[in-house]
Amino acid sequence: MKSFKTTYLNLSLFLAFGVTGLGFTASVAADAIYLSSTSFSLTLENVETLDGYSVDNDYWYASGGEFFIDDTLFTSGDGVADYTSTLATNSSVEMLEGDTITVATGANGEAGLGIAESSIFTALDLFVDNFYYDYLVFNFAYEYTLSAAVGTSTGIPDDDAIAEASLFVTDDFLAVDIAEVAFADLLFGPLSDDYSGSGSFSFMLDSYDYNYLLVESFSGGLAVGASSVPEPSSLMLLSIGLIGIGAIRLRKQA
């Protein structure tokens, strides 16, 4: 994912600078707009023995590890862009029974006679350890939402914009495997894309065994605003979109 993120940034900036040098002919100003967001919530419902008895948290451990963030923010002309990233818990980073961890990212931007680009990628590690003398069963519940949308302030598609939101969740035991992508494209459609879901999963750990969960969230977009947009900018956005879709398909197949 991070390699795709780097490729996305390098290519988009290279092509974006190329487009700005082609020369635009201004007519009626119209802003290209993008908006993307990703949210994932994980709840530790309970921890129990194989017989269904609850076990005190002195004998097990569930805690968030490194919270990695990689971001992009670029504007030119009248472009305006921003991104957000939050890691929220209802008690602490260390999870007890009933606790919820929420990872959320978002990106937005608009440009009338310029370029706006922003993206945010986060990766949360969660380690679950069993210090009990016997097997323990860990029961989790989750829910998520993804949204990507593009548009123009005038409703006239004279500008270009793309938006993407993606979520990947997995663990060492493959008890959970989520791979979702929402993608919107002003020129080729769709103008909006949304996904949501919820569910639960469980895994069993032997004495002094552990499991590792990974949550990756991405939100990003690019807007090229110009009253008269030349064809190369359309090709630019199409190329970036194809790179993103190709990377996502490779990730799902891996």
Structure description:
With 254 residues, this protein is an alpha+beta fold. The chain has one domain (2-253). The protein has 2 helices and 10 strands; from the N terminus they run H-E-E-E-E-E-E-E-E-E-E-H. It has helices at residues 2-20, 231-253; strands at residues 32-48, 60-76, 80-89, 100-111, 114-130, 136-152, 160-171, 177-185, 192-205, 210-225. A 5-stranded antiparallel β-sheet has the order 3-4-1-6-9, with no helix packed on it. A hairpin with a 5-residue loop joins strand 7 and strand 8 (177-185). The longest helix is centred in the last third of the chain and has 23 residues, at 231-253. The model is unreliable at 1-28 and 228-249 (pLDDT under 50).
Briefly characterize the structure:
With 254 residues, this protein is an alpha+beta fold. It is built from two helices and ten strands. It has one domain.
